[in-house]
Every structure is written in C-alpha cells, then in structure tokens.
Design a protein that fits this description.
By secondary structure, the protein is an all-alpha fold. It has nine helices and no strands. The chain folds into two domains: 105 residues; 71 residues, no CATH class. It is rod-shaped, with a radius of gyration of 35 Å. GO terms for molecular function: DNA binding; RNA binding.
C-alpha cells in the first residue's frame, strides 16, 4: 500500500526530505549572505589591510560563483559543461596564491640583507684616496672588528686638524664624517650591535666581495 501510495504521488519521500533540507539551508545561506554583503562597502574595504582586503574580495567572488554553480545544477546543467568552469579554475589559482601570502605573513621576519663589513670597509678605504694615516688605521680597525678603535675614531671627530690647503681640509673632513657614519651603520654604536637587517659575517679572505 505504501509503495503504491508513494508511486501515485510520483515523488519519493527521500527526495521530498532532501528538498526540504535544501530549502532550509538556502534560507540560512541567505541570512549569512546578506550580512556578508553588507561588508562589501568600498569604504569598509579601503580601511582593511591589503591582505585582509584580498581575502574579502576573494570570498565575495567565491560565494557568488558557488551560488551560480548551484543554480546551474538545479536546472540540470553541470558546471564543468558551462563557461563557469573557467571562472572556477581561475578562482582556484587565486586561492592558492592567497594561501601562499597568508602563510608567508605568519612566518617570522627574516633578515633580507647580509653585509660582509670587512669587505665593505676595504672598499670604502680604497674609494677615498684623501684619507689620513689615522683614518686608514681606523678603517683597518673596523675591518678587524676592534670596538675600542671605533670609539677612538668617534672621539677624534672633535679634534681640529691642520692641512696644507683649505680644499684638502674640506675633502679630509668629509672623509672623516663619512667614516663616522659608516662605523655607526656597521656597528650600531657598539662592538657587536648592528643597525637594521645586517649581521656580522667573518671573512678570512682579503678579496671577498660585498654580498
């Protein structure tokens, strides 16, 4: 009797239950979707950090595409047989890229630059032919990493020096100021500290270039 009654109606009970569950889920999706779309305001998006804004825009595109794919299925069209397939592939590609950026943002910051300060000081020394013997000695002390010599070099900046001509005096003063700044940049004001993403690299070779 039940089978004849079910066949007379033409739709199995399991199908009716599935449709009812689908309608309930669609109402739930509609509720959340309206709340989600309220955040698509351009002013709200502009205030987001770039990565968060990219995530939001991706979610908007994915939600829209998914809903349209469901609509195609309800009309008997498989998404793989529709132009929507290209959009789904494109979204999959962007999802992979976005996940890479998210994973990168969670990683601890890394030093982006490594400076061989010994090679750097040798390069500076050879680039300034007007250095005094004291200045050349200070550069060699920096190359060897001797902090006490660096402090001596910084104290010597306040001493007055006599030169043969005013032009040579100006060149040597500029060289002295350059050396002071180079020492502070290389050592951060102490023997082992460095300013910025610089780390100390020991070098036994006299001809090792700057990395």
């Amino acid at each position: 009797m039940e089978s004849s009654s079910s066949s007379s109606r033409g739709v199995p009970e399991s199908t009716i239950e599935a449709v009812e569950r689908t309608l309930a889920n669609l109402k739930l999706v509609e509720t959340h979707l309206l709340e989600f779309l309220s955040r698509a305001n351009p002013d709200v998006l502009d205030e987001m950090p770039p990565l968060q804004r990219a995530q939001s825009l991706f979610m908007f595109a994915k939600a829209t595409t998914t809903i349209f794919a469901l609509r195609l299925r309800t009309t008997g069209i498989h998404p793989d047989e529709h132009l929507l397939k290209t959009e789904l592939e494109r979204l999959s590609l962007y999802q992979d890229k976005l996940e890479q950026f998210i994973n990168t943002s969670k990683e601890p910051s890394r030093r982006s630059t490594t400076l061989n300060y010994q090679a750097a000081t040798r390069f500076i020394e050879h680039s300034l032919p007007e250095l005094t013997p004291e200045q050349r000695k200070s550069m060699r002390d920096i190359s060897r990493g001797e902090g006490s010599k660096i402090k001596y070099m910084e104290r010597s900046t306040h001493k007055k020096r006599k030169y043969d001509t005013s032009e040579k005096q100006s060149v040597k003063a500029a060289a002295q100021e350059f050396l002071e700044k180079a020492a502070r940049e290389l050592f951060g004001g102490n023997t082992d500290g460095f300013k910025g993403p610089l780390i100390k690299v020991d070098s036994s070779s006299e001809d090792e270039p700057v990395e």
